[in-house]
Amino acid sequence: MNITKDSKITYDPVSIMVDGRRWFPMMGEMHFSRYPNKYWEQELTKMKAGGIDIVSLYVIWIHHEEVKGEYDFSGDRDLKKFLDTIKKVGLYSILRIGPWAHGEVRNGGFPDWLLQDARDKGYEPRSNAPAYLEHVKTFYEKIYEQAKGSFLKDGGPVIGVQIENEYGHCGGLNGQEGEEHMKTLLAMAKEIGFEVPIYTATGWGGAVTGGMLPVMGGYCEAPWDQRLTEIEPSGNYVFTRERNDHNIGSDHGLGVGITFDMDRFPYLTCELGGGLQVTKHRRCIATGEDTEAMTMTKLGSGANLIGYYMYHGGTNPEGKLTTLQESKETGYPNDLPICSYDFNAPLREYGQMEDTYRRVRLIGTFIHDFGDDLTDMKYVEQPGNPSKPDDFDSLRTSARCKEITFGGARYMSGYLFVNNYQRRYRMADHRDVELTAFDERGGRIISFAKRDVSDGDYFFYPFNLPVGDKALLTIDATPLCILRGAAAEGDVYVFYTDTEREVSADIKGDIGGNRIVIITKNEAIHSVKVNIQGRDFLVISDGEAVTEEGGSVNLYVQVSDSEGQKKALFRSLPELPKTPDSFELLKSAVEISDFAGSDIFAIYEGKETLTCTQRASFEKISGDSYAVKLPGSLAGAEEIFAQIEYAANTAGLYKDGKLAADSFYTGQLWEIGLKRFIDRYGESDTLEFTAELEPLFEGDKVYLQTWPEMQDGKASQIFYIHLIVQYCIKIA
Prior knowledge:
TIM Barrel, eight-stranded parallel β-barrel
């Protein structure tokens, strides 16, 4: 969607619109004050390559005014620079100005001095108390000084502002008093100068919205839950009109716990869990499949904006007076790591692009080419679809469809969604199922060829999907993207399948010069659509292709110490206009025929052998302390990741007695990116740290999905440190 400063961004009960056209954006949260500013542009380009259109971000009060009257918008706290970088990369932004953020920050983002002032003067924060509002006004004014000139009307990236967060759900006032407070904050923001097309408010769990555009959330688990056991299955894997998440809101019936009229506003999300942040007592892990299946379920339930919290993990900044993480010491229910805000997000604490990133990108690729048309397809409840997530036997289906005209006749065009995935629970297998989409009156629209739907399967199939201007396609494969101009006389429509059986398709009309290509689900997960010299290409690789600002395309390739060495390898459809200088063309692309497979792709192999010759070492000093030595130079690589395999309750990495990185044990490898430490401490042969482990005991009150092996009832040991070297190679 091309948005200019003169564009008119609005919304109706269905979707966001730009200049009267429906828009389905992808949004991802990144906190600039939790990431080194030196790498903002690199990380934002990764977000864009992952399918993100809008960057949402908190301006966290305590990060900017920890000491009263001492404002810090420099370095990693430089909001203006971050907004400028968002614009440079070609993204848009929703500015979340609070004043309360939560965000797993100390006091929910409130500075200690503000809470002390409230105690001294006897007023309630997050109320209409004049003293409180005066402090908020000053904070808003400071944010505006940074954001001025970055609003859409000025040609900047900021298209929206969120007021407060979870107001009336997590603290604050309820009912009419709460609504009036939200309206007061909104009026204050507007008066100061925050002029944007859209003002939003979080809408789950009884939160009040002050008439602003409500945005919703949903997480696959609840690390804030105080129980230390498996919790009930998440409702976010059930197709439903319900917009509330029973873990962060309330699930007592359709619309219960929602303070706005759902018929007046589109279904938009801002906090689908891109992962989960661990707490001291609850260490649940969000996998890529957890996030992908949840996202697909929200698509099938009618969501018209997919927004992830977090999309990019980070590291808490160092405080001047205290540490800045949420903790029980400050009256909050959870203890969190002092440093790490990794979140198991699509892009992790050190910018790692892992499985969740690839799976979210898969859905984002579909949305970019088909999402705008999806927006006005209604959610249609399907016969037999269960309403509760503890029904593991019924097959979960939904349809989104609309009536279209083709060849003088009327057809229902849309998608049938199927989800047989429930995180941490087994679903029944369904053998030889005829999948059928029904309309709102219960009439049959279309039936697909029979297939097995096994535990863990989730997918969606199109019916009567326009292919060009003269054909409709019904196919039991999932659409990925459209490669414009990739065929000799038209476009290439790329689909993927999760089964090995032959794909069935029905075409009404003539697809003309357009072509249809079918690849596997695994190939789709590792694919990236890029544009080179005005033409679309699909790149498939174990590496990650990222389009940089200016249009060049780089391939991030990793070599582990267990591999030792390898050559970069990727496939492209169609063949690239020019073989990259550092690659050889091993196989030319084959002319594309209808329903072709991935054997038609061109194959490129790097000329240079990429190596991982660096080594890490560790030695037990005493008790639960280790001396750790890591590479102190990148030596031509883009990044080096150290993966520490350990078992303990928590771990901290110290440099000269100061905490540099930390981890709460989950059973995953503790992965650390070294380039920021090389920047901080200077290049050398070796980075030397001390690792301090807090032992984990059999009786500790903590939820772990998998417990480590204990020795004499205790776990406190480093087993190995793996290294992964990451290279960045230009391919176009």
